[in-house]
Amino acid sequence: MSYLLNLVYLLLVVIFSPWLIFSAIRKGKYREGWGAKLFGRVPLREEEGRCIWLHAVSVGEVNVLAPLLMRLEQQHPQWVCVISTTTKTGFDLARKKYAPRSVFYCPLDFSWSVRRAMRRIRPDLLVLAELELWPNLIHAAKRRGAKVAVINGRLSDHSVRGYRRIRPLVGKLLRTVDLVAVQNQEYAHRFVELGAREQSVHVTGSMKFDGAQTDRNNSKTQELAKLACISAADVVFLAGSTQEPEEALALDTYRQLADEYSRLRLIVTPRHPERFGEVADLLSQSGIPWQRRSELVANGPASDARVLLVDVVGELGAWWGTAHIAYVGGSMGKRGGQNMIEPAAYAAAVAFGPNTRNFRDIVAMMLDRDAAVVVQDGRQLTSFVRRCLDDPKYASRLGRQAQQLVLEQAGAADGTSAMIAALMV
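Now predict its structure.
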């Protein structure tokens, strides 16, 4: 089976190589880590003792690991934890967030690359965040005697439809997984339906609630607020994890309201770094004074610009702490939404678009508790921001209800760490 998979993967690499080359040249993606990806040249683990290899695809999954890592290392300081990622943004964030731990690009699912990586790392447990079912990687771990766990697991409608087409293969693979810790009962049913052993599937809740900061006075948020010269009188409207055309919608909202509400400020944080230049051009063409986050200087002169483009990776979590009104991006197009827990935890008044399938259970909870608002288009986004400005009590109530929901849902990391510890016995 591994030889057949290798052939399929090689064909896919050949088919998509023009796109990969284009992305590397134009967007700076896929330029790094090819020694690890193709040949398994990951860092050699020289320490003896037990080891957990945690794999997180990109930024969202990298952030999810934080509360789990903290608990594992507090309770079992003798264990070594190493972290792999797939994307450059995930890799950069993991190195920044988890140094001095070993961070590396996960090998592609070629049998030779995953086997070599396993020999170099020698893990006792391979932990896959959310859903990364790579057959050769899992089989290589099992052949080395390591156990395998899926944590914070989820199966979207789209994913489960795709997996059903290859159900015999997926079922065989899932039966080798020792632990499937999922976010809710619906996902648990889906994993079992696809072939996971019922006794290995457990509902733990979402660890995204555990990693959410609730204190606006945390040092990083305060540092950024000072850097951007945000005063206590300012009302910050933050559009985060945005994709086209959401930056334009947020900018149009600001343009319509700025003259009437002089203390309004706009912060825009695009989801993908390769779009920073595109959004900068949009802001320049608007004629509205604006700044780049990367050009802010500590103790520098105050600017009259009321619009800020955050063109730095890994800071959005702290920037949410400056927001009074939050729009969570990736929800107006086909992306399926981005993490709305972070602004909710800070008690911001949260809105997002109608397409949030990736966070359907969290959205359902928030809407049921009147802890967020769905806006269908730019006109409704402007109306939402205006209402928050006109009625601060409404915005405050929305934010408090959102924060309370986050506090009530915390605890998934505790249950997950206990289950991982049981696998390591």
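The chain has a mean pLDDT of 93.
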